[in-house]
Specification:
about 300 residues, two-stranded antiparallel ribbon, 15 helices, about 5% strand
């Protein structure tokens, strides 16, 4: 595929959007990749990383290796993801703490639009695809209701968290950051990024690389053999995740850490009128519309050849 510099800049922009989404616990970068038209290329590129590719580097040289790797695509995308994720994670922490309704409203609108754009790529809806959709929705909804575990900073656990979370990060609808929260590793990773703890970051990245290389092969096989059913499951994942990003939640149970600081442990979604506090309804509605329109822009970028 021949691409110009402009094309790679657009891919980097998509990477920036993916990284920003993955930094928010409840939003999946995989959804952004899907809507922006690079999802299957990303999965195929990752799944093609194997021993024969490494052998090509030593036998044929850097240029054939880089072409076989689809290196320009990966470099453009990953640079956007990393820059956005590291920088936006701090901003996300602030927004979630001080403006939760507004940030969740934006992403709620974004995900509602995503359901339509992913679902319309199923070429034939029948009983099998409907069942697949329901299964995906039930699984995502169940995950969204899980309480988070206590923080765990051990090396093996951080490695395991990276392996699991990266699988969620490339699945539309299921948030890798939210999986980290459920596992109790989000704060550990956030602190490691803030403190530039190279050891912990390398452990997490090692787990993520192994998880990514393994899971991408599974997804590639599913797209090849069960394309419509896979798309239906992914649409269900996105639909089921709406509960997680619903802006208005009342806290049922609080978690108190060793320093006496409280954080929400179990929350339930409520109507704006039943929300305990200022529901910020007008601004929330505006941001939902902005989130909805953002997907149209990404989809238009993705549809350009």
């Amino acid at each position: 595929m021949q691409r110009r510099l402009k094309d790679y800049l657009i891919i980097s922009f998509k990477g920036l959007a993916m990284g920003a989404a993955d930094a928010i616990p409840g939003v999946s970068g995989g959804t952004i990749a899907f809507i922006s038209g690079i999802y299957e290329e990303l999965i195929n590129t990752i799944s093609n990383i194997n021993i024969s590719l490494i052998k090509a580097l030593f036998k044929e040289g850097i240029k054939p290796f880089w072409q076989q790797l689809n290196g320009n695509f990966l470099l453009a995308l990953l640079s956007g993801i990393v820059i956005s994720f590291v920088s936006f994670m701090r901003l996300a922490k602030y927004l979630l703490e001080y403006h939760p309704i507004l940030i969740w409203s934006f992403f709620f609108g974004l995900i509602v639009a995503s359901i339509y754009f992913v679902g319309k790529q199923v070429t034939k809806w029948n009983m099998a695809t409907v069942i697949s959709f329901v299964i995906g929705a039930v699984i995502a909804f169940y995950i969204s209701k899980l309480p988070s575990l206590g923080t765990n900073e051990s090396s093996w656990f951080l490695f395991l968290a990276g392996t699991i979370a990266i699988c969620a990060m490339i699945l539309p609808g299921i948030s890798g950051s939210f999986i980290l929260i459920i596992l109790g590793a989000y704060k550990t990773l956030s602190n490691a990024i803030h403190d530039i703890d190279i050891r912990k970051l390398l452990i997490f990245i090692s787990g993520a690389v192994i998880g990514l290389l393994s899971f991408s092969r599974v997804l590639k096989w599913l797209f090849k053999h069960f394309h419509n059913a896979t798309l239906a499951v992914l649409t269900g994942f996105i639909f089921g995740s709406l509960n997680r990003v619903w802006p208005w939640k009342n806290t049922i149970t609080w978690h108190t850490n060793s320093k006496g600081l409280k954080s929400p442990l179990i929350q339930e979604s409520v109507s704006p009128m039943a929300f305990e506090g200022n529901n910020q309804l007008v601004f929330a509605f505006i941001l939902m519309i902005l989130g909805f329109l953002t997907i149209f822009i990404l989809e238009r970028l993705g549809s350009k050849k």
